[in-house]
Write a structure and sequence with these properties.
single chain, alpha+beta, five-stranded mixed sheet, four-stranded antiparallel sheet
Length: 300
């Protein structure tokens, strides 16, 4: 019989708690659920009011891995949803607004992916994201070099960059924006990527073409498009080990000389939250949000 747990007055079915989901460490589904329960205070603000795409891996990363964007069958009626525009027509997606919804979603075994806009203003981004993806033999060490250049370039335009690991090979940089059309944010991010390629010759490419990426850091600007999503801060990733998309200090980025230094896993996150709090909390401070460069104050 599937155990039923009461979470904030909601009944949540939690199944297969002993199933190993991350085989490199024997990390189980029960441990995954415990991770989200103990980090919920940090995770939820990054999910709240953003339609969630689920990258599901119910049998671990070596099993079937698939995206779910529409509201999954069997979703409890108390889980919030929102209708959002899609190229093929309006669709209804999940909003993870509270602890009960987070635990229900975590029981599906999923990476959480969210857009840079909120459900009440689709296509109007309040964050900029730059995804730094290293092409082997480049690693996160090279991503750090690029991140430091981009930090200064963004600062020159009045934007404050905040780093996190992707939870895979690279880094993400996030910056708070006064709401601006996703297409305009994408165009600006592309300009940054092209400039980075020019300034860091041989280290950066702004092109997605696989053949040009070995040994370079691909600055992926396209995740600012309204249709795209990015791994949500603190989400577990579908990897052999339970790696987490982890907010970083700039000191950690500056001092990184080996890839393993920025390899953070589920067990690392609560101690980091105790030491630092949520390093991405400034993204929620509207007074710190900057206008998109090239827009007149108050128009974005």
């Amino acid at each position: 019989m599937t155990p039923i747990t009461e979470v904030e007055g909601r009944k949540v079915a939690l199944s297969n708690l002993e199933k190993v989901l991350h085989p490199a460490t024997g990390f189980t589904k029960g441990e995954l659920l415990h991770y989200y329960a103990t980090t919920a205070e940090a995770v939820l603000p990054h999910l709240r009011d953003r339609p969630v795409s689920f990258l599901r891996y119910p049998d671990g990363p070596d099993g079937q891995v698939f995206f779910t964007k529409n509201v999954p069958p069997g979703t409890p009626d108390w889980v919030a949803t929102a209708q959002v525009p899609r190229s093929e027509g309006p669709a209804r997606m999940v909003l993870v607004q509270d602890l009960a919804s987070l635990m229900w979603a975590a029981n599906l075994v999923t990476e959480f992916h969210t857009p840079q806009w909120r459900a009440d203003s689709p296509g109007l981004a309040d964050r900029l994201v730059l995804d730094l993806d290293p092409g082997s033999p480049a690693t996160v060490v090279e991503c750090c070099r690029v991140a430091l250049w981009l930090r200064e370039r963004l600062a020159a335009d009045g934007l404050t960059a905040h780093p996190k690991t992707s939870g895979s090979k690279g880094l993400h940089l996030l910056a708070a924006l006064r709401p601006a059309p996703s297409a305009d944010v994408t165009s600006y991010a592309r300009t940054l990527a092209v400039e980075a390629q020019a300034e860091l010759a041989g280290l950066v490419t702004h092109r997605m073409t696989r053949s040009v990426r070995p040994g370079k850091v691909f600055v992926d600007f396209s995740q600012n498009a309204a249709r795209k999503t990015t791994a949500t801060p603190y989400t577990l990733r579908a990897r052999a080990a339970p790696t987490v998309s982890t907010p970083l200090t700039w000191e950690e980025v500056e001092s990184c000389v080996a890839p393993g230094e920025l390899d953070f896993r589920a067990a690392d996150i609560v101690p980091r939250l105790e030491s630092y709090g949520d390093l991405l909390a400034p993204l929620f401070d509207r007074d710190r949000a900057a206008p998109l460069p090239g827009t007149a104050p108050g128009t974005a």
